[in-house]
Specification:
This protein is α/β, with parallel strands linked by helices. The protein contains 13 helices and 22 strands. The strands form 5 sheets. Strands 1, 2, 3, 4, 5, 6 and 17 form a 7-stranded mixed beta sheet that branches. A 5-stranded parallel beta sheet has the order 8-15-9-10-11. Strands 18-19-22-21-20 form a 5-stranded antiparallel beta sheet, with helices on both faces. α2 runs parallel beside α9, α4 runs antiparallel to α5 and α4 packs parallel to α7. The longest helix is centred in the N-terminal third of the chain and has 25 residues. The chain is globular. It starts with a helix and ends in a 22-residue tail after the last helix.
């Protein structure tokens, strides 16, 4: 092998430097594998640049606006004199840029070759077991190649759909729109609608079904819809878009198939789903066939149908969450280079959070899924709803007021031992509560285990260890 060929040959090539790809590369390099990572866009992927991180900053801003509004209930004479969107955007973008640069800069420090080019496949050799890719006109080979290119927002395929920006475009907005339409029932649409509404935009959320988050537990989606409407955010159920028109005053009008017309929007945002960025990979050259929107089929070990080529993260269409991709990447490195032949990630009982207003935390089966999978007689449901103590002094301390926001928890248990197979929370602090209880559920906790833990009072999470009847489970 020539020196040039040797320099361009690696134990592992990772295509895509999002969280999953970087975690895989870092772990593999820790096992002394020779690794190269290829990225044609911003390092850190969706999560760092146009996803989890900047979204949470915007959520925090909206939460802060709510806190300022509520401060008078605690006796503070606070006046919100304005909100500087540009200041927040600049600070947010600076932070995101710095984080992305850290992703890029630390990789060479641990011996990983970084190639800032879009990569695609050339072919694979059955004789050598090597796969060849090309990037920037240069070919590279590896014994193992992992596809971690992530996804991108879907576009609105209706007349006038080009007038709608997507979730990436949300982060490029230079000012807070006075009136905005959010199209989409998923967590991205719900989260961004809540942010805009919380910061002062007149916000409408258009969903095709009765409620947003249709794959979540009925308690979650019903309470969320009620809470959003109660806050003044307009939720338009049963909305199937027909077209969008741009008016002479530069605003947009939305026409629905049922004949309803909604007008005056400065911005229309389409959050209607995402698709994997697999089209440009030339997968046919390595005999990989995609399904659905372009997802790559893999087995439980992240193997594709072609030996030596793997896929993880959003390109697989399984659990499309950043921590899931991170875990999958690390486990794949453990298997390929760490001497752990059976290492694989567990895609069951994955906790997740929706940074909506109110916030949601959930893990395991929904009530509907539990009844579908098991006999109804084997399922027991525990519910709790309460007003968080934070709201106690509100409305002059009126204990019975129905105006105070409710928190709701649901525990789903299976069999005579009442093993917990689902936990669903909506309300203040649900995002922080779900992580610790997720550990318990992964360990097979039962209702009796929950009851055996003495409550921490006063907290919201104590409701999870005091579901009535308390202490009666075996």
């Amino acid at each position: 092998m020539s020196e040039i060929e040797n320099n361009n040959h690696f134990d592992l090539i990772v295509i895509g430097a999002g969280s999953g790809g970087v975690s895989l590369a870092e772990r593999a390099a820790g096992y002394n594998a020779k690794v190269a990572i290829f990225e044609g866009g911003a390092y850190g992927g969706t999560c760092v640049n146009v996803g989890c991180v900047p979204k949470k900053i915007m959520y925090n801003a909206a939460h802060m606006a709510e806190t300022i509004h509520e401060a008078s209930e605690y006796g503070f004479n606070v006046e919100k004199k304005g909100f500087n969107w540009q200041k927040l955007k600049t600070s947010r973008d600076n932070y995101v840029r710095s984080l992305s640069n850290i992703y890029k800069s630390f990789l060479p420090d641990i011996g990983i070759t970084v190639v800032s080019e879009i990569a695609s496949f050339v072919g694979t050799s059955s004789e050598t077991g090597r796969t060849t890719i090309i990037a920037g006109g240069q070919e590279y080979t590896a014994n193992h190649v992992a596809i971690t290119v992530g996804g991108a927002p879907d576009t609105l395929q209706i007349p006038g759909g080009e007038y709608a920006i997507n979730s990436d475009g949300f982060f490029t907005l230079e000012s807070l729109p006075k009136k905005v339409a959010m199209i989409g029932a998923g967590y991205i649409g719900v989260e961004l609608a809540g942010v805009l509404h919380g910061l002062g935009s007149e916000t409408s959320l258009f969903v095709r079904g009765e409620t947003p988050l249709r794959n979540f537990d009925v308690m979650i989606r019903t309470h969320l819809t009620e809470a959003m409407r109660k806050s003044g955010l307009k939720v338009h159920s049963g909305s199937i878009l027909q077209k969008i028109e741009k008016e002479t005053d530069e605003t947009f009008t939305i026409y629905l198939e049922n004949g309803d017309v909604h007008s005056g929007y400065e911005v229309v945002i389409a959050a209607i789903g995402r698709h994997p960025l697999t089209e440009r990979l030339n997968l046919s050259s390595v005999n990989i066939t995609t399904f659905g929107k372009g997802y790559i089929p893999v087995d439980e070990y992240q193997n594709t149908t072609t030996p030596g080529i793997y896929a993880l993260g959003d390109v697989c269409g399984k659990v499309e969450l950043t921590p899931m991709a991170v875990a999958a990447g690390r486990r794949l490195a453990d298997r390929l280079f760490g001497g752990i032949p059976n290492a694989k990630v567990d895609y069951t009982n994955v906790p997740t959070v929706v940074f909506s207003h109110p916030v949601i935390g959930t893990i395991g089966l929904t009530e509907e899924e539990a009844y579908e999978k098991y006999s109804k007689d084997d399922i027991r449901i525990y519910n709790s709803e309460f007003v968080n103590l934070y709201y106690g002094p509100f409305l002059d301390g009126d204990l019975m007021s129905e105006e105070k926001p409710l928190t709701k928890y649901k525990l789903i248990c299976l069999g005579p031992e009442e093993r917990v197979i689902g936990l669903h929370c909506i309300g203040m602090s649900s995002d922080e509560v779900i992580q610790g209880f997720g550990v318990a559920i992964k360990m097979g906790a039962t209702k009796a285990n929950f009851d055996s833990c003495v409550a921490i009072h006063p907290t919201a999470s104590e409701e999870l260890v005091t579901f009535a009847p308390w202490g009666k489970s075996k």
